[in-house]
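One record is set out below.
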Amino acid sequence: MPKIKLPRKSTHIDMTAMCDVAFLLLTFFMLATKFKPEEPVQVRTPASVSTDQIPEGFLLITLDKTGRVFFAMDNLNDRQALIEKVSEDKGLNLTPTQINNYINGSSTGVPFSQLAAYLNATPAEQSDLDKTAPGIPTDTTGDFQTNELAYWIVAARYTNPQIRIAIKADGEAGYPEIHKVIETLGKQNIFRFNFITDMKGVPPGTALAEEQAGGAKAQ
């Protein structure tokens, strides 16, 4: 019997609808995405061979090369709860606009007495103020009056008891200034925290190099 030949049909697919959807999604993400604000100070961290990653939602303490201390929380919801607690406990009476500016801002490096004025400033004005900001008052005591960093840490942990703490210190920062931060954590019985460093290659012949080589072979 003769074979029946099926008529050939065009394989053309109209992609117009898919392109429209793709551009709509792209436009949505561009408009809805909030970019992370710039850090108030530039910090050149020392290098290490550690490969551990800091999880999201951490508490960040930054020290610049002059020893100024800046404080930030990564999670926006935690930031809102924190600044509302600070406003109430310290009697700052921050306005909704000031609270929103803190939530969407970056690190804070001014004493409580200057916080309201700092949050009234525009992002451009805050960037200029950060250049001369005194930093958060810090010493080796746990007194909230003289060691305001201690209060920030306690208030942050009250907001999120499981929060991880990371220190980002400039490689030129003096040891006494870093010691103040570590001692402040110790006064709050915090003995587990991370230092943020730049990544460098593992020196060949070391135990870590051999461990990584063994892990690579095992895979």
